[in-house]
UniProtKB/TrEMBL annotation:
Residue runs in coiled coils: none
Residue ranges constituting the ABC transporter domain according to the UniProt record: 22-253
Entry keyword set: ATP-binding, Nucleotide-binding, Transport
Source organism of this protein record: Saccharothrix syringae (Nocardiopsis syringae)
MF annotations from Gene Ontology: ATP binding; ATP hydrolysis activity
Name of protein: ABC transporter ATP-binding protein
Pfam families: ABC_tran
Family, similarity comment: Belongs to the ABC transporter superfamily.
Length: 337
């Protein structure tokens, strides 16, 4: 997979450039007794790489399908590139590339032939340039050598790559990728990250879903955490990580002296292997450092303990694992109580 930068993405004919590439309000999807998505208000800023993070069954795929107009919401509104769905779908969709589960490739055609069929229905692709666009997309996702083989014989990773190639046939204003690294080996995962970084640099907005925090941290500028069908945290990745950082880890050889100085200042602290951990409740990092330095404590290093998203996501995942005996309906209804 190459990561060459494609042409910058224009804002041509899907109306004036919106501030949000996608927006949902009160989005809800109910399948029978299962509430798959509930009250989701999602903001995808233009130019962002937004990671949709959540454990299995948290509603990522359903939300993405509603964003793309593939599934009709039970309630709520979706705006895609400034166009309200479902009416605006025809205007918005040509500017949106998507990799979603089950892209419907023909099993007995080769990867290249499949992609040519997709290219034939691309409104933004001039007839004469379709063949070259297919070859470029195949190269970009590292499928050039396997392009002549039948789709039926592709591994999961190769199928993912072909789906990604279809999303990349023309420069898009918005690219939506549902679990794009699913089935890929570590090298393939790195390549997908490269493609996402490349799309971002070229001006596309990207929405990417994953159940792996590491994946989101490596690629995203923004994140929306989903749990049991609802968004429990959303915003800039850096701000989210920072906002919940409630402790400061201080590396020092003078542990006793540090604890005494902090306790004298009514600052909550406890010893760790490397020094002390200070809870930033009713105090700030500069105030803690000032108290330590004034007491003559040798501070070798001070860093915020990254709670935030990591802790939040761990809690969610643990809750999900503990709920294995419950059906999806029980789990969601319990969450809604
Ligand atoms: N077509 C459907 N019919 C019935 N239930 C569905 C359907 N699609 C999704 N669900 C249910 O909705 C809930 C959310 O599923 P969804 O696939 O959106 O989650 P997800 O976060 O994408 O999960 P995963 O990471 O496993 O793909 C699950 O309980 C799922 O079983």
């Amino acid at each position: 997979m190459t990561t060459s930068t494609s042409a910058r993405v224009g804002s041509a004919d899907a109306g004036p450039a919106p501030v949000l590439a996608a927006r949902t309000r009160g989005l809800r999807k109910v399948y029978g007794r299962t509430v798959a998505v509930d009250r989701v208000d999602l903001d995808v800023p233009v130019g962002a790489v937004l990671g949709m993070l959540g454990p299995n069954g948290s509603g990522k795929t359903t939300t993405i399908r509603m964003l793309l107009g593939l599934v009709r919401p039970t309630e709520g509104e979706v705006e895609l590139l400034g166009q309200a769905l479902p009416d605006g779908v025809a205007a918005a969709l040509p500017h949106v590339g998507a990799l979603v589960e089950g892209p419907g490739f023909h099993p007995f055609l080769s990867g290249r032939e499949n992609l040519r069929r997709v290219a034939a229905f691309e409104p933004l692709l001039a007839t004469g340039s379709a063949r070259q666009a297919v070859e470029d997309a195949l190269e970009r996702v590292g499928l050039g050598a396997a392009a002549h083989r039948r789709y039926r014989g592709y591994s999961l990773g190769m199928k993912q790559r072909l789906g990604l190639a279809a999303a990349l046939l023309v420069p898009r204003r918005l690219i939506v990728l549902d679990e794009p690294t699913n089935g890929l080996d570590p090298a393939g995962t790195r390549e997908v990250r490269g493609v996402i970084a490349d799309l971002h640099a070229a001006g596309s907005t990207v929405v990417v879903s994953s159940h792996l925090l590491s994946e989101i941290e490596a690629t995203c500028t923004h994140v929306a955490v989903l749990h049991r069908g609802t968004v429990v945290a959303q915003g800039g990745l850096a701000e989210l990580l920072q906002a919940d950082s409630s402790s400061l880890l201080v590396t020092t050889p003078d542990v006793e002296q540090a604890l005494n100085a902090l306790r004298a200042g009514r600052i909550s602290a406890r010893p760790t292997e490397e020094g002390v951990r200070v809870e930033l409740i009713g105090t700030t990092a500069p105030a803690v450092l000032e108290a330590l330095v004034r007491a003559g404590v040798a501070v070798h290093e001070a860093r915020r303990h990254r709670t935030g998203l990591e802790d939040l996501f761990a809690r969610l995942t643990e809750a999900e694992e503990g709920d294995h005996n419950l059906s999806a309906v029980d789990t969601i209804e319990e969450g809604a109580r």
